[in-house]
């Protein structure tokens, strides 16, 4: 749990919290989706993260893309704004986080990272019909935007 979340919980206790997040769907020329392997976990996910105070949703999307993948987008396009019962995280201690997520398409990707295709990295492009196991939030986002089965 982040220090920010800990501090918020100090004031509101065990209650529902709404969190605003930005996610980025980047595709290569073949239409494959860029996914990142989560550190210390055996699942993949989209670049996604919370908005910092004073930051726009688009700025957060650009920052998350850079922080998690090393890529810059020439343009970000809002694809969808997701919320509701499918975008809830329930913690074992009873805390609930309800997400509002702006999902952006990244166009014109540029990177200072130049890895060969066969490199064993934690960042790869996957075809929509050959997705790896993804974290729950990424699974629901891809299901909504790509029409993938919810149990991917």
Largest sheet: 5 strands, mixed
Give the uncertain stretches in residue-range form.
Answer: none
Radius of gyration: 16 Å
Quote the average pLDDT. 86
Description:
- The chain has 152 residues and is an alpha+beta fold.
- It has 3 helices and 8 strands.
- The strands form 2 sheets. Strands 1, 4, 5, 6 and 7 form a 5-stranded mixed sheet that branches.
- The longest helix has 13 residues, at 57-69.
- The mean pLDDT is 86.
Gist?
With 152 residues, this protein is an alpha+beta fold.
Helix-strand blueprint:
Elements: H1 3-12, E1 16-26, E2 33-37, E3 44-45, E4 48-50, H2 57-69, E5 71-82, E6 88-90, E7 96-111, E8 123-126, H3 136-146
Parallel strand pairs: 1-7
Antiparallel strand pairs: 1-4, 2-3, 2-8, 5-7, 6-7
Essential attributes:
single chain; 152 residues; alpha+beta; 3-stranded antiparallel β-sheet; globular
